[in-house]
Amino acid sequence: IIFSNFFLIVAVAISFIFLLPTGIVAAVTNQSIGLNVITEFVAGVAIPGNPLANVTFKTYGYISQNQALLLISDLKLGHYMKIPPRAMFITQLAGTITAGVINYVTANYLLSSVPNICTQKNPRWTCPNANTFYSASIIWGAIGPVKMFGPGSTYSSLLYGFLIGAIIPIPPWLLMKK
Question: Which stretch is the leader sequence (predicted)?
């Protein structure tokens, strides 16, 4: 078993917990906060040495949250344009199903008909997103965050960034409350 139901529940819970805070930030600032590194880190610690499980965890934890925010953003735009919510939702659902089928068919066609696609032998078809996803799975899944950031590793001091990032916003927030 590459990925158990427990990790699926944890990934979806992370996505759900962070949906409201990241949604508020995105709505107010038009800047999205990605959970990709957080989900890769959690999966790398919980499921070490398994790049496929890391990518699966990332997909359910980060991509689902990202897609939910995109849906909410589209529904917000429809609300501003006074389009009925039910019509917006049905249109989004139809668009999602249509795009999913078209993307699947197109990917299968390209992978079967273009020789050496996504390899160095064919520089016109490099697949940068797939390469980035693959690299992240190796770094966070195969190598793992414990080997990269654990005690005695080269980058262990970078973990203090989490502590600093949690503490630094508190004084300005307290000053703002006064």
Answer: none
CA triple 121-125-130, angle to 5 deg: 105
Rg (C-alpha) for the chain, rounded Å, is 20
Exposure string (b/e) for 18-44, b if CB count within 10 Å is 16 or more? Answer: bbeebbeebeeeeeeeebbeebbbbbb
Phi, psi of 97 (to 5 degrees): -65, -45
Tell me how far apart the alpha carbons of residues 11 and 40 are, in angstroms, rounded to a whole number: 10
The model carries a pTM of: 0.80
Residue 90 in contact with residue 40, Cβ under 8 Å? no
Main-chain phi, psi angles of 2, to 5 degrees: -85, -35
Q: Tokens 């529940």 correspond to what residue?
A: 9
What burial letters (b/e) apply to 79-116, b meaning 16+ CB within 10 Å? Answer: eeeeeeeeebeeeeeeeeeeeeeeeeeeeeeeeeeeee
**Mind listing the pLDDT tens digit of every residue in the chain (178 residues)?**
577 899 999 999 999 999 999 999 999 998 988 899 999 999 999 999 999 999 999 999 999 999 999 999 999 999 999 999 999 999 999 999 999 999 999 999 999 999 989 888 888 888 888 888 899 999 999 999 999 888 888 888 988 998 999 999 999 999 999 8
